[in-house]
Amino acid sequence: MAAPVTVVVVPVFNAPEATQRCIEALRATLDSRQPVIVVDDASDDARVGPLFESLPRQWTQVRNQANLGFVASANLGMTMASGQDVVLLNADTRVTDGWLSSIEECAASSEEIASITPLTNNGEIASIPEFCRPNPWPDHPERWARACRDSGAPQYPEVPTTVGFCMYMRRAAIDQVGLFDEAAFGRGYGEENDWCMRAIRAGWRHVLCDSAFVAHEGGASFGPLGLKPGGEAMQTLLSRYPDYMERVRDFIEADPMAERRREIVEAYRSLGG
User: 222-263 pLDDT, tens per residue?
Assistant: First the structure.
């Protein structure tokens, strides 16, 4: 078996229960040789420390001395990944069996792919069963994962932007367009959209991986900072890319995943969902 080439980066701020669930799922689904970097952004919840003490010793852990925010913590992890592809994973997620290999197969399908987002219950244009809605936390994440794998050949539809809860980023694209823009997007929201638009302008593509499923709670990781989507970050994004919202609206109206979602939902129900 070839050595893994993708580094999983997990920024953490408080949310110990969600973080523990994320870590346990990673341990259950990853090869022991899989490189993982966990970055604690100066959590002030005392329960986070013991979580880091229990991490597998082969994982790399970083404890920021001061709170830098999600964007800087993510950039730190990507920099530490040192020339390798990255999956940036929110701590309020739960990965499922085969998730990373499915994403890597998707990446191998085209060298033009800069970023990949798996399907999820709560991920806007990557959401299932209801499109563009925050579906509840799934009762059976593994059943959804199996439905994604077993319901037919993946389509890998192109999307206008990735969704940041679980974001594969090809190193060649990072090298070309740079890291997230910390100066413009500060403590979060909009940084992944800005990165995706920079990549598109440089000739890259972004896709959904419809053969992988990662559950996403939403709002647990970094939530205590009181961050909200929109506002200044959205204004910055639209000033840079006036066509951004039009691209997103066009994708939503076309909904190229409609039939594929139906196939996956039917497969899920046939498995007892």
Answer: 333 333 555 788 889 999 999 999 999 999 999 999 999 999
Q: Which residues of 222-260 are buried (b: 16+ CB within 10 A; e: fewer)?
A: beeeebeeeeebeebbeebbeebeebbeebeeeeebeeb
C-beta pairs of 138-144 under 8 Å, 24+ apart in sequence: 138/215, 140/273, 141/94, 141/96, 141/213, 141/215, 142/96, 142/97, 143/268, 143/271, 143/272, 143/273, 144/96, 144/119, 144/213, 144/215, 144/264, 144/268, 144/273
List, for residues 171-203, the tens digit of each pLDDT value.
999 999 999 999 998 767 899 999 999 999 999
For residue 253, the number of C-alpha atoms closer than 13 Å in the C-beta half-sphere is 6
Which residues fall within 8 angstroms of residue 121, CB to CB, at 6 or more apart?
127, 128, 134, 135, 136, 137, 138, 144, 215, 216
Task: Answer for the pair 93, 26: CB distance below 8 angstroms, yes or no.
Answer: no
How far apart CA 233 and CA 255 sit, in angstroms, is 26
Quickly count helices (H) and strands (E) in the chain.
11, 9
CA distance 134 to 17: 20
> Would you say 207 and 116 are in contact if contact means Cβ atoms under 8 Å apart?
yes
